[in-house]
Design a protein that fits this description.
246 residues, six-stranded mixed sheet, four-stranded antiparallel sheet, binds adenosine-5'-diphosphate, binds magnesium ion
Length: 246
């Protein structure tokens, strides 16, 4: 069994890697019920996603999609249940290293004056080679590194936001409503890009609008008021989205 040492300054954490074992992330009875809320936001969520798979969670507004991603990114702490990567139980600190969360409308969080600065924010040690490789991966290698993120088109900004996470080489890419606000042609480009990224990473996508994303999904769930249920495109086919997820 190989051991990958993911570097966390001052506190190295070992994540066990077991090649040939096809389990990636596993959630067992994960719940989130902060003391201040009368009802649980997530209730006994079970999910398994293998490496190089894209999992699609479909749920209406307020169903708990963003909260689930925040827990998987180590930004919020579950109140019950377990999260495993392969056989290892993970803490929020592990999850911060394992996962890369691309927020909804991620371009609103750009804060640097060039593409290069945006990619290196918080990681000044990353070399030019890694920068170039990441931009190639998202199809932005033709742009000058001095370009201000604000000067990019909407579709390019979404790609840059993906690159900001990919440059850290997370095992699990978490995407919150990745096609929101994009026009038809940008959506197509983004879906094609996600299909390509799937060959290197596990992707978990949450959305209220699964158009376009069905075709690249491997596993499907619906989320309603914090309850996750497995589903299939066939099961939902023919039903309107509203009736399928409410
Ligand atoms: N930290 C929190 N404390 C209390 N309520 C929260 C917290 N985070 C989210 N919520 C509530 O949990 C529910 C799910 O929110 P969210 O995960 O943002 O849903 P979605 O992304 O599916 O729209 C909402 O009712 C929201 O108001
Ligand atoms: Mg949300």
């Amino acid at each position: 069994m190989a051991i990958i040492n993911l570097i966390n300054p001052g506190n190295a954490i070992e994540i066990l890697m077991n090649p040939g074992n096809e389990i990636g992330i596993t959630l067992k009875n994960l719940s989130y019920h902060p003391a201040a809320t009368p009802e649980a936001i997530l209730t006994s969520v079970n999910l398994e996603l293998a490496p190089q798979q894209l999992g699609l969670i479909i749920g209406p507004s307020g169903s708990g999609k963003t909260t689930l991603l925040e827990i998987l990114a180590g930004l919020a702490e579950k109140t019950a249940g377990e999260i495993y990567w392969r056989e290892q139980s993970l803490t929020p600190e592990h999850l911060q290293q394992l996962g890369g969360l691309v927020f909804q409308f991620p371009e609103r969080h750009f804060c640097c004056s060039t593409i290069l600065e945006e990619l290196r924010l918080g990681h000044p040690e990353l070399g030019r080679e890694r920068v170039d490789e990441t931009l190639r991966e998202v199809g932005l290698a033709h742009l000058s590194l001095d370009t201000p993120p604000q000067a990019l088109s909407g579709g390019q900004q979404r790609r840059l936001a993906l690159a900001v996470q990919l440059i850290r080489q997370p095992q699990l890419l978490l995407l919150d409503e990745p096609t929101a606000g994009l026009d038809w042609s940008m959506r197509r480009q983004l879906v094609n890009l996600l299909a390509k990224l799937k060959s290197h990473w596990s992707l978990l996508v949450v959305t209220h609008d699964p158009r376009d994303l069905w075709e690249i999904g491997d596993r499907f769930w619906t989320l309603n008021r914090g309850h996750l249920q497995p589903t299939t495109p066939e099961q939902l086919h023919g039903k309107s989205l509203t009736s399928a997820i409410s």
